[in-house]
Amino acid sequence: MLVLNLGIVHIYRIMKKHLYILSAVVLSFITPLLATAQTNTEQEAGIAYVIPIHDMIERALVYVVKRGVTEAEALDASVIIIDMDTPGGRLDATAEIIKIITSTKIPTYTFVNPDAISAGAITAMATDHIYMAPGSRIGDAMPIMMSPLPMGGPKAMPDDLKEKAVSPTVAMIRAVAQRKGHDAQLAEAMVRAEIEYKIGDKVICPAGQLLTLTSQDAAQIVGEGDDAHPLLSAGTVESIEDLLNTIGRGSDEIVTLKSSTAERLARIIDGFPMSGILLALGLLGLYIEYKTPGFGIPGISGLLILAIWFWGHHIAGMANIAEIVIFSIGILLIMAEIFIIPGFGAAGIAGIILVVIGLFMSMVGNSFSVEWYALPTLEDIHYAMLNFSITLIVILAGGIILGKLLPKSAAFHRLCLDAVEHRDDGYTSAKTSSELLGAKGTAVTTLRPSGIGEFGDKRLDIIARGSFIDKSTPIVVAEVRGSRIIVEKV
Q1: In which residue ranges of the chain is pLDDT below 50?
Q2: Distance between CA atoms of residues 14 and 17, nearest Å
């Protein structure tokens, strides 16, 4: 029995030895294969789709960003990078851009190069990760109210109105920060100056200041131990290529969204103050055409400028077919009132109302995500009034300038007759028969008060002064006014 046990032990030791050798051989083959597979996975080339957000954030940019995200999804891009350099812009446009960015399942990154201020900071918070170029800035997202006057700049808001504007902005930036894993308290400090933001005992931004971070500030490590993390920026990189290398996507092909000429023009046309200036020039051209005979260059220029204005707002997603139709019907009613219907009444008034409604709706715009019956925001109304003020100022200035310069121009002399015919120069509207003064004759017809009189061998049209004169009554010429011969009873 002991011999049998020793034999089993010996066999077990031999098998164990061979199992070690076999395992080592298998691992020697499998390990390189696993490493190669892992390397291939990390270096698998994809597409990094870059969407530039440069200059002011306005409504026309919403369409551009929407098209970029749609193209990135169609290309099955591995990442979307927002190339950010903006001083801010409209909050309503920012809200729409945030909805577009957060709706995609593709990982999103913001590369701040060099500024993400105000609305730009809120947009950056809507991405999964934020990287910054050396010396770049992010923050200062408190909403401001602009003066309705051209070049008026920002103006102070009453406290109740200020809170009404700040509170929704705080909710917006906190919501996107929480959704994307950023510090919501830090995001709020970019909007509210009255709060103090600190990490532990370290004050990052004292009360009374809006939080604005440089690239070094945003990348500083805060917290201790397992809670240590960058304040906001995931890293400081020199370029988009460096960003891709940092996140392990260095082999990705970079595809940058190119704005079309139409989109670039739309951003200019829809922006302030160009929108108001173009609208004023178009209406001024139509007014000049109305004041001059025929239909020529002013009318064609006015219609062309208005067509460009509506086209730009349509590309920007502001003026839909409904607004254009309303405006066109208004113009047709006004033209019918002027050229077809005598006087000025219901058609003209209705036309003016429809023109104003069409223009106002085109400047207020339609939200990309709300129902058609949603009311415009205060910011929409303020923007429309701002453009209308520009329009009125340009029309007033243009009318004064044209009123002084146009009558002196050669073009005006070709359009209007400005010669004056004076009596002293021999010009008269009718031949004056002054030699008949005092002549006597007979009424051929009854004068009631006009009729025919006979003076020698001449029969003339005459007018009785005072009461009517019966036929065959002797008369005398008492007064001659041009072609009017006035007679009395003898």
Answers
A1: 1-12, 20, 24-27, 29-43, 150-151, 367-374
A2: 5
DSSP string, 167-215: HHHHHHHHHHHHHHT--HHHHHHTT-SSS-EEETTEEEE-TTS--EEEH
Contact status, residue 302 vs residue 285, Cβ threshold 8 Å: yes
CA dist., res. 406 & res. 399, Å (int)? 10
Q: How many domains does the chain have?
A: 3
Amino acid at 145: M
pLDDT of residue 437: 84
Bin 89: left if φ > 0, else alpha if -120 < ψ < 50, else beta: left
The tokens for 296 are 């020529």
So what's the pLDDT on residue 98? Answer: 95
Q: What is the pLDDT of residue 303?
A: 78
- 335 and 464, same domain (yes or no): no
Q: Which residues pair with 464 in a beta bridge?
A: 487
Indicate the residue among 259, 284, 308 that finishes a domain.
Answer: 259
pLDDT for the residue 382 = 63
Predicted confidence at residue 107, as pLDDT, reads 95
Q: Which residue has the tokens 């999804």?
A: 73
DSSP code at position 68: H
Co-location of 218 and 202 in the same domain: yes
Q: Count Cα neighbours of 361 within 13 Å in the Cβ-side half-sphere.
A: 18
Same domain, 254 and 267: no
- pLDDT, tens digit, 9 for 90 and up, residues 320-345: 677 778 888 888 887 787 777 766 67
What is the DSSP secondary structure assignment for residue 435, as one 8-state letter? G
Please tell me whether the peptide bond between 32 and the residue prior to it is cis, using omega within 30 degrees of 0.
no
Phi, psi dihedral angles at 340 (to 5 degrees): -115, -55
Is 203 in a helix, a strand, or coil? strand
Output the DSSP codes for 312-357.
HHHHTT---HHHHHHHHHHHHHHHHHHHTSSSS-HHHHHHHHHHHH
Helix (H, G, I), strand (E, B) or coil at 469: strand
End-to-end, the C-alpha distance of the chain in Å comes to: 180
Amino acid at 1: M
- Angle subtended at Cα 489 by Cα 484 and Cα 490, rounded to the nearest 5 degrees: 115
